[in-house]
């Protein structure tokens, strides 16, 4: 597609997105809650969007579930995803320093604060669970700025608009590709790096069990912690009930590589640690996880045994 035509198409898509968000913002959250029921029905029952992927993922994660349980979880997941979009549209107008308690509960926030307020570089790990976008936004509301590594969207107009939302309270976005120097600058200056720890990393990733099946995870998630001796906390942002914009931000667990006797000093051990913690929080409310993406791809590479040396 010629660059001029692509730019025009991208801008049209951006305007459509802005119009949709403006419409959502004009609607009360209660209306949005009813509207997402219909959208979930459309995606699940009519369009059957990514039906096979979600079904396969749920069979791996919950082999004891019946077909009816998986069906119900699939539909509820779509409801959650659509409601999450509506919540993001309403967040800047509703969640402020003086109002956040009306919407957000904190659980084990001592783990979060101990990590975020410690000296030197810090790392926060979460997953595609609950409203993880809200988590970064709220940390900024608390006066705790963060830097997040995220993939740059193909549509430059949409990418800029999304990052403007993220940056309203101090959540700065670093591109997934080519941001090595920026990451080094953030951590070397004692900043906070937030990462999603449940993304597929291909055959060269670190393979650890996730819901009982090996999954490839980016080694960099652990290397940031180990290389910079950065205190690290795993955080979950879970919806409370079915109502919109009612969340609980939980500190799941934390570690400090500087502590005496630190026992997770290798990439596999640390990767297994935070993967287990993420699995624990997902099990609390599985329908809030993004089962639409393929977490399990391929198989771990077979390691060749060293040839015996001939004397």
From TrEMBL:
Keywords: Acyltransferase, Cell inner membrane, Cell membrane, Membrane, Transferase. The lineage of its organism: Bacteria, Pseudomonadati, Planctomycetota, Planctomycetia, Pirellulales. CDD domains: LPLAT_LABLAT-like. It comes from Botrimarina colliarenosi. GO terms for molecular function: acyltransferase activity. It is an enzyme of class 2 (transferase). The gene is htrB_1. The keyword Cell wall biogenesis/degradation does not apply. Its EC number is 2.3.1.-. It comes from the Bacteria. One of its GO terms (cellular component) is plasma membrane. The keyword Protease does not apply. This is Lipid A biosynthesis lauroyl acyltransferase. GO terms for biological process: glycolipid biosynthetic process. Pfam families: Lip_A_acyltrans. InterPro entries: LipA_acyltrans. It is found in: Cell inner membrane. Transmembrane segments: none annotated.
